[in-house]
Amino acid sequence: MKIKVVFILFVVVAIFSCRNSSSKNNEFVFPELDSIPLSEAEKLSPEAIADISKNISSPVEIANLLQMLEVPFSQNYLATSIDANKQSTSFDKALKLGILGADLGYLNMYERTGNSLDVLSSIRKLADDIKVGQFFDFEAIKRLSQNKSNLDSLLFISIDSYSQIDTYLRENDRGQLSALMIIGVWIEGQYLATQVVSQYPDTMLRDRIGEQKIILNDLLLLISPYCNRDQEFTALCKDLQNIKDVYRDIRITYTQGDPISVEKDGGLIVEQTETSVVEMSKEQLDGIIAIMKDIRNRLILNN
Amino acid sequence: MKKYITILTLLLIGVVSYGQTTDPLVSNCAINAGANAKYLKDFRVQLGKAANPNELRYKANMSLWKNTKYRFTMCNADDSKGQLILSIKDETNKIVISSFDKNSGKTYPFIDFTCNKSGMYQLNYDFTNGQQGSGVGVVSMVK
After folding, report:
1. How far is CA B140 from CA A22, A155, B29, B143, in A?
2. Nearest Cα to A222, choosing from A179, A172, A277?
């Protein structure tokens, strides 16, 4: 009996100790230095970090706005130069996972799913490299990508995979990688919006870019515990601080009003009459376009 | 010995499937939010009976953007005693929308909200009368 119990314990321990390894790689993998010292993680409560992570605008929202404005799809906006095989550090892998996640959202929204297979392959490689590939159901996404009638399922499964990765990283003391992924998504979404607005000037898009001032502080809060971690983090913190400086004099004002509600089809339809107004000059917008282009293009250079 | 093999097989299946499953309640709620609704986020809510049923207990922040029409859909698990309800407050703590009408006791399974003021909003979820329940609140965009 004792032998059986010892055998079971041995197998169970072996199974659980393998859980973080890449499913396709049985070789020994030297652990990467990507766990946060507790003292740093404790500066913000896990709930506060989770809240900030959920706050950040989805790239699908930007793509939705572009579609609404009838901006044509362009492959030129995508970070096609990223070579997943050339990313050497966890920093690069997590940041690029975020950037490519935003590109995937853009491709999905425009139903350019045929173009998304290369992006998906890169995402798969990067996710496996940082041991989160198990959260990305690549085969299901690939299958849904080939069947355009399943856009709802495709959007859900893609976004949900990223949410699961984010939660897993935060809950397993790898919050710095979660922060990088979220920042990568945001930078690419901002790059997309700023590139489009320089070609197709539109007030709604211009306002959306200006309104990002609302979440810039949260992004800085998310990354701030890691700013002194190494040179890569220090440089990224400096980039975000520089973006914040460009946004400093942009003003967002509000007008008052009460919402109007009506019942329809068993639900409630609510129209908000309060409004937000962005005060941003052309020079300020040009400054944002320039800094986003500079930072994003530097970040997607291969090592 | 058969018993041990069964236990090991179950453990193995459990570990292999770890992290790859999404609750069907969530995926069904997200996918069935409407033909013109595009999934953005979800909030999974599981609460016991409340000591004070007047205050909505599950709170989360979310940035909502001007010129966007959002759909907030509430779905309940079969074993929920209460129905999932949502109230949204703006940065000044003013209630902007609520899926529960206190006067009539009516609950709405979804709200379409046309946002005209970008900012950070607080989403407050609970179950009717502070009852025990589990459910999911899905946020989608509507064209």
Report:
1. 33, 11, 11, 10
2. A179
Residue A123's contacts (CB-CB under 8 Å, 6 or more residues apart) are: A84, A97, A100, A101, A104, A136, A138
A263 found inside a domain: no
pLDDT top residue among B10 and B106 = B106
How many domains does chain A fold into? 1
CA distance A55 to chain B (A): 5
Residue A191 belongs to a domain: yes
- Domain containing residue A73: 39-251+281-299
Question: What part of B 28-67 touches A (C-beta under 8 Å)?
Answer: 30-31, 37-42, 60-63, 65-67
Check A268 against B111: CB less than 8 A apart.
Answer: yes
The pLDDT score that the predictor gives to residue A279 is 96
In a domain, A168, yes or no: yes
Residue A279 backbone phi and psi in degrees, to 5: -105, 105
A115 burial via Cβ count (<10 Å: 0-12, 13-18, 19+): middle
- Give the tokens for residue B117: 């003021």
Q: How wide is the angle at C-alpha A186 spanned by C-alphas A183 and A191, nearest 5°?
A: 125
CA A79/CA A280 separation, integer angstroms: 28
Which residues are within 8 A (CB) of A201 and not within 5 positions of it... i.e. 6 or more apart? none
- Assess if residue A258 is contained within a domain: no
Domains and CATH numbers, chain B: 2-142 (2.60.120.380)
User: Is the CB of residue B49 less than 8 Å from the CB of residue B130?
Assistant: yes
Paired strand residues for B142: B37, B69
Cα B106 from chain centroid? 18
Closest CA to B69 of A293, A248, A270: A270
Query: What string of pLDDT tens digits covers the 303 residues of chain A?
Result: 555 544 444 444 444 333 333 333 333 332 333 333 334 444 567 777 777 777 666 778 888 899 999 999 999 999 999 999 999 999 999 999 999 999 999 998 898 877 788 899 999 999 999 999 999 888 888 888 777 667 788 888 888 888 889 889 988 989 999 999 999 999 999 999 999 999 999 999 999 999 999 999 889 999 999 999 999 999 999 999 999 999 999 999 999 999 999 999 999 999 999 999 999 999 999 999 999 999 999 999 965
pTM listed for this prediction: 0.82
Best of B38, B42, B83 to disrupt the A interface (most A CBs within 10 Å) is B38
User: Quick one: how far is CA A99 from the chain centroid?
Assistant: 6
* DSSP 8-state assignment for residue B72: E
